[in-house]
């Protein structure tokens, strides 16, 4: 997850937010995830909002909450653990 958020922050810093999820989609494609995992990550992003700047702030905070809560979201975190 860290790699995703780091990449999203970098793209936003360089290009700004276009008020859509083009940066998130680009990162997910560049990660080369299998389709099921890419779809799971995209679904996960919807917890944060519908544009890259909302995803960057809201989803990251939500992710930290899930990680800090034992046994919650274990499958999702297993799917989305990438280096």
How would you explain this protein's 3D organization?
This protein has about 80 residues and is mostly helical. It has one domain. It is about 70% helix and about 0% strand. The model is unreliable at about 70-75 (pLDDT under 50).
Key phrases:
single chain; 83 residues; mainly alpha
Strand count, sense and barrel status of the largest sheet are:
none
Shape: globular
Query: Can you give the mean pLDDT?
Result: 77
Secondary-structure content class? mainly alpha
Number of strands: 0
Number of helices, where a helix is a run of at least 4 consecutive DSSP H or I residues = 5
Q: Approximately how much beta-strand content do the residues carry?
A: under 5%
> How helix-rich are the residues, as a percent range?
55-70%
Which blocks of ≥5 consecutive residues have pLDDT under 50?
72-77
Cα distance spanning the termini: 8 Å
Please tell me how large the radius of gyration is. 12 Å
Task: Please give the domain count.
Answer: 1
Run of helices and strands? HHHHH
Overview in brief:
This protein has 83 residues and is mainly α. 69% of the residues lie in helices and 0% in strands.
Write the layout of secondary structure elements.
Blueprint: H1 2-15, H2 22-30, H3 35-45, H4 52-68, H5 74-79
């Amino acid at each position: 997850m860290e790699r995703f958020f780091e990449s999203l922050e970098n793209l936003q810093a360089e290009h700004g937010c276009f008020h859509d999820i083009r940066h998130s989609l680009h990162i997910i494609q560049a990660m080369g995830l299998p389709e099921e995992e890419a779809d799971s990550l995209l679904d996960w992003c919807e917890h944060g909002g519908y544009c890259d700047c909302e995803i960057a702030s809201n989803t990251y905070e939500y992710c930290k909450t899930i990680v800090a809560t034992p046994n919650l979201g274990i499958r999702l975190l297993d799917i989305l653990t990438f280096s």
